[in-house]
Amino acid sequence: MNRSVAADDQTRIQRTLARLRDATDLPLTFGGAVNSDMQLQLTQFVGAIAGALRGAVLDPGRGLGGKVVTRRRPQLVNDYVGSPGISHHYDHIIQAECLRALVAVPLVVRGRVRGVLYGAVRSATPLGDRTVHSVMEMARELEQDLAVDDELARRLRWLDERVPEPRTAAGTHEPAGTQREQLREAYAELRILAKNTEDPTLRERIEAVCHKLSTAGGDARPAAGTAVRRQTAPLSDREVDVLACVALGWTNPQVAADLGITVETVKSYLRSATRKLQARSRLEAVVAARRRGLLP
């Protein structure tokens, strides 16, 4: 597993474990990421531990976590040490922490187990259905977040390899027709996907690439012979989002569906952007936005 990816996964896992403990009042929530050898390393904890769990590496199929990794589905034990359904390679660790009832849920992203979330209590009291459901629900939410992050990272790598540097006064870079359309599609999709990430570092990368994209498709200066109109108020992020989608030829309902807003809201943003750009139509608004370097 790539080290940076593992670190990002662990940060996400830690945040989810904190939310999980608050939502369920479990005395201990913990987990970790799964490496390329399908080993689970326990690195993230919310709640008091004696220390035996910290850094433990669980092999595939062994113990509760190893079983979850290989079977790719949640597992529940109401008394770990006495449970006949798991191997007992790690009983000494569990006993050192005085853990009894545990639930473990895998994080499966694009068919691969990326990590495991646990909830545990130090008594043989069965975990309630509501608690187990909460662990599973938050695991599903985290899977979606990780999938979004993966897609954003993939697109950013693709763009890093293909997007030319912004044009300078002496530069002649301009993408060919097919590539230009690909860049415009990538720009619109990145802006949409960026709304789904809570990672500030990743969002900064996306914003930097979007700026690079917006100047990659051509010259931001007005064409020769075109009168320079009086500058108006800057466009909001949402207005640029709408124009980026409109530039691809999308209808208002398509824009609304992708941005998660109503058709009337799309129309409102479009009217506002058109007015600010001093344009008379959506096409003119797109052209004006490109001349200002707001769109590729």
Topology:
Elements: H1 3-24, E1 28-33, E2 40-41, E3 44-46, E4 57-58, H2 63-71, E5 75-77, H3 91-96, E6 101-109, E7 112-121, H4 129-162, H5 177-194, H6 200-214, H7 237-246, H8 252-259, H9 263-276, H10 282-291
Antiparallel strand pairs: 1-3, 1-7, 2-4, 5-6, 6-7
Helix pairs in contact: 1-4, 4-5, 4-6, 5-6, 7-9, 7-10, 8-9
What does this structure look like?
This protein has 296 residues and is an alpha+beta fold. The protein is 49% helix and 12% strand. The protein has ten helices and seven strands. The strands form two sheets. The protein has a five-stranded antiparallel sheet with strand order 3-1-7-6-5, with helices on both faces. A hairpin with a 2-residue loop joins β6 (101-109) and β7 (112-121). The chain is elongated.
Overview features:
296 residues; alpha+beta; five-stranded antiparallel sheet; two-stranded antiparallel ribbon; 7 strands; 12% strand; elongated; disordered N terminus
Radius of gyration: 25 Å
Average pLDDT: 83
Q: Count the beta strands.
A: 7
**Computed structural class:** alpha+beta
Q: Flag low-confidence runs.
A: 1-5, 167-172, 218-230
Largest sheet: 5 strands, antiparallel
String of helices and strands: HEEEEHEHEEHHHHHHH
Sheet with most strands: strand arrangement? 3-1-7-6-5
| Percentage of residues assigned to helices | 40-55%
* N→C terminal distance: 35 Å
Proportion of beta-strand residues: 5-15%
Can you summarize this structure?
It is built from 10 helices and 7 strands. The protein is of the alpha+beta class and 296 residues long. The strands form 2 sheets. Strands 3-1-7-6-5 form a 5-stranded antiparallel sheet, sandwiched between helices. A two-stranded antiparallel ribbon has the order 2-4.
